[in-house]
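Propose amino acids for all 374 sites.
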């Protein structure tokens, strides 16, 4: 798309130059009143500044057709502004933002190639990461606003900063935190194959090594002998006891036996998340409401639709934060962003490897946004 800025005494004069240089297919992207000259703020000259664009490839002209109706709306706004110059500054800001909004809506209904060339890589990146369309629209809105309103060419780093800032605004209402260290019991739940046991060991190592707390383990994963042995291996390294529980009575006994420890980490069985009975079995064994912090674990190699289905099954249990594993095994990190926005539940940790305790990273709002865009 070819984009150019024009300044003229009137909109009609500006349009005359636009048609001469860009042709009748040109689209007004933005217009505002500007003042220049004068003496001590008096006798300033009023001009209209217009940013217009046209698809440089004649074979792509059909892609700007969605803008035709928008041009009519923009002209109506300009007419209203012309009749109400007492509030010209407010109207100018309103019209500017309204036009950008209309532009973004049109762009998302059209072929993605109608984006300015500089913004195409970002549109493609957001889509390839799997960020859902409504969120992409808002992020591209922020980029387009910076691109058109600032009136200058931004660097790649500046564009990324715009995206990060907008991500932060979207995530700001949601709480992000790791282990708060206000609860005695730390529990991880989730489907099979997401890496719950390894993740639990990483969390335990952090609490023991970094925060100098005494730790112990309880496992209810009696379906896989290998899982118990794996946890015992980690426990031996961390010099921590392990209690194996088959039912609610075992769980109560284990809590009593481990009462002297600062923090007790609970490992649960990974079962088919489509079976609601699995969640009911967990509720029968574990008291999730008493002095416990629960993390629901997802693998980023899973489809977003499966993540939503997993959450729907587990949401009957009080979930404090999410943990996303296997970050290093996929480039589609948008699913975790989508899920956090959908559920209003933050991400406590992201893991990106098998090394204990290194490959785990505590999240906050800003850091999570950066990991989404990596």
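Proposal:
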């Amino acid at each position: 798309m070819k984009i150019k800025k024009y300044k003229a005494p009137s909109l009609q004069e500006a349009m005359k130059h636009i048609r001469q240089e860009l042709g009748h297919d040109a689209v007004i992207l933005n217009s505002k009143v500007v003042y220049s000259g004068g003496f001590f703020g008096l006798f300033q000259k009023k001009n209209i500044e217009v940013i217009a664009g046209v698809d440089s490839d004649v074979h792509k002209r059909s892609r700007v057709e969605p803008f035709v109706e928008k041009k009519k709306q923009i002209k109506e706004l300009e007419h209203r502004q012309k009749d109400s110059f007492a509030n010209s500054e407010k109207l100018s800001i309103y019209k500017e933002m309204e036009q950008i909004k209309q532009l973004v809506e049109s762009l998302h209904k059209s072929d993605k190639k109608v984006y300015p060339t500089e913004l195409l890589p970002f549109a493609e990146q957001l889509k390839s990461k799997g960020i859902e369309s409504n969120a992409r629209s808002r992020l591209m809105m922020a980029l387009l606003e910076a691109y058109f309103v600032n009136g200058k060419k931004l660097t790649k780093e500046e564009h990324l900063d715009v995206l990060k800032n907008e991500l932060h605004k979207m995530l700001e209402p949601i709480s992000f935190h790791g282990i708060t260290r206000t609860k005695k019991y730390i529990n991880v739940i989730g489907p099979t194959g997401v890496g719950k046991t390894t993740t639990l060991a990483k969390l335990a190592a952090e609490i023991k090594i970094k925060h100098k707390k005494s730790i112990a383990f309880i496992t209810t994963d009696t379906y896989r002998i290998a899982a118990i042995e794996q946890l015992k291996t980690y426990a031996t390294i961390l010099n921590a006891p392990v209690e194996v529980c088959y039912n609610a009575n075992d769980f109560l006994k284990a809590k009593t036996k481990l009462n002297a420890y600062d923090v007790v980490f609970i490992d649960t069985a990974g079962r088919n998340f489509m079976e609601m009975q699995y969640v009911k079995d967990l509720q029968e064994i574990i008291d999730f409401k008493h002095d416990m912090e629960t993390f629901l674990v997802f693998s980023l190699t899973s489809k977003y639709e499966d993540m939503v289905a997993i959450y729907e099954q587990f949401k009957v249990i009080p979930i404090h934060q999410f943990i996303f594993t296997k970050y290093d095994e996929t480039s589609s990190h948008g699913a975790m962003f989508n899920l956090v926005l959908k559920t209003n539940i933050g991400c406590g940790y992201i893991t990106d490897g098998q090394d204990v305790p290194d490959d785990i990273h505590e999240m906050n709002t800003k850091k999570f946004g950066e990991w989404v865009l990596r």
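The radius of gyration is 28 Å. DSSP finds 13 helices and eleven strands in the chain.
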